[in-house]
From TrEMBL:
<dbReference type="InterPro" id="IPR027417">
    <property type="entry name" value="P-loop_NTPase"/>
</dbReference>
<dbReference type="InterPro" id="IPR017871">
    <property type="entry name" value="ABC_transporter-like_CS"/>
</dbReference>
<comment type="similarity">
    <text>Belongs to the ABC transporter superfamily.</text>
</comment>
<keyword id="KW-0067">ATP-binding</keyword>
<protein>
    <submittedName>
        <fullName>ABC transporter ATP-binding protein</fullName>
    </submittedName>
</protein>
<dbReference type="InterPro" id="IPR003593">
    <property type="entry name" value="AAA+_ATPase"/>
</dbReference>
<keyword id="KW-0813">Transport</keyword>
<dbReference type="GO" id="GO:0005524">
    <property type="term" value="F:ATP binding"/>
</dbReference>
<dbReference type="Pfam" id="PF00005">
    <property type="entry name" value="ABC_tran"/>
</dbReference>
<dbReference type="GO" id="GO:0016887">
    <property type="term" value="F:ATP hydrolysis activity"/>
</dbReference>
<dbReference type="InterPro" id="IPR003439">
    <property type="entry name" value="ABC_transporter-like_ATP-bd"/>
</dbReference>
<keyword id="KW-0547">Nucleotide-binding</keyword>
<feature type="domain" description="ABC transporter">
    <location>
        <begin position="3"/>
        <end position="232"/>
    </location>
</feature>
């Protein structure tokens, strides 16, 4: 599948722009959307899910205009909204059967599919009690399961790992990486390490704009030779912060190890270059584009 998004703009009102002239082309595989609060991640996901209409721009899925023909994507779409709500009185079976009916998924295999999904998100043991009694992470997992009900070819997860414990994060990763070969999967997160372990490609967004998209090594390259570490006295940290863009600090016995962004010719004395990761590159790219 190919999803071509061109010059997408979403204006919520005269003062609020959710997305601005956003263009991106997606193929099968997992795309991670990284961006600070208000970057436009949910806005983009809602428009692809046809929950929201763009103010301007086009979306074509395998050549079909999905703004004009939303039905074309809806039947092959799985979507977990950021503010996913459940019916608290239904148990997991009832809830998934209800969503299946809404999506027009039925047939003989439905019960089996529901069980398979409940196993996939590790909710079989709790499937018969009301969802209202679930923990936050368990509710999130039922949300993940409902997105997969119709065997989707376009899967959109808005902040899917929120509330998941480390074990369930790993399970989620395995569940979706098995699907990525013949499915466009888009997921957003603030947790760079989650994106790092799952995504084939990363799109960095800020202020409704796409800053860059590429493979993880491509994104990391932006920050190469731009991130350094130095040990300084705790008392000099405020002055250091006013001069450099500090990414992280770690207290040592009587010193602070500071990780910061700088051009090579402007680094602080005794600094050493560090091996950069996706988080460094993300911070470098977003802080560079306020
Ligand atoms: N219904 C709405 N009405 C008005 N403005 C909105 C609406 N929804 C989003 N916005 C604005 O659009 C911009 C993008 O919001 P969006 O929810 O897409 O960001 P996000 O990247 O998903 O943020 P977060 O990480 O907090 O989920 C923000 O400035 C937000 O205030
Ligand atoms: Mg959001």
């Amino acid at each position: 599948m190919v999803l071509e998004i061109k010059n997408l703009t979403k204006k919520y009102n005269r003062h609020k722009t959710g997305l601005e002239d956003y263009s991106i082309t997606l193929e099968n595989g997992i795309l991670g959307l990284l961006g600070p609060n208000g970057a436009g991640k949910s806005t983009l996901m809602k428009i692809i899910s046809t929950i929201s209409k763009p103010t301007q721009g086009t979306l074509f899925l395998d050549g079909v205009d999905i703004v004009k023909s939303p039905g074309h994507i809806r039947k092959i779409l799985g979507y977990l909204p950021q503010d996913f709500g459940v019916y608290p009185n239904l148990n997991a079976y009832e809830f998934l059967s209800y969503i299946a009916a809404m999506k027009g998924v039925g047939g003989k295999g439905l019960n089996q599919r529901i069980e398979l999904l409940l196993e996939g998100v590790n909710l079989m043991a709790d499937a018969k009690r009301p969802i209202g009694t679930y923990s936050g992470g368990m509710k999130q997992r039922i949300g993940i399961a409902q997105a997969l009900l119709n065997d989707p070819k376009v899967l959109i997860f808005d902040e899917p790992t929120v509330g998941l414990d480390p074990e369930e994060r790993v399970r989620f990763r395995q569940l979706i990486s098995d699907l990525a070969d013949n499915c466009i999967i888009i997921l957003s997160s603030h947790i760079v390490s989650d994106i790092e372990t799952i995504a084939d490609e990363v799109a960095v967004m800020q202020g409704g704009k796409l800053i860059t998209k590429g493979s993880q090594p491509d994104i990391i390259k932006y920050a190469e030779n731009k991130v350094f570490e130095v040990l300084i006295a705790p008392a000099s940290l405020p002055a250091f912060k006013s001069k450099y863009r500090v990414i992280d600090t770690a207290r040592q016995i009587d010193q602070v190890r500071v990780r910061y962004i700088s051009d090579l010719n402007a680094i602080a004395p005794s600094s050493a270059p560090v091996k950069v990761g996706l988080e460094d590159a993300y911070l470098f790219l977003t802080q560079n584009n306020p």
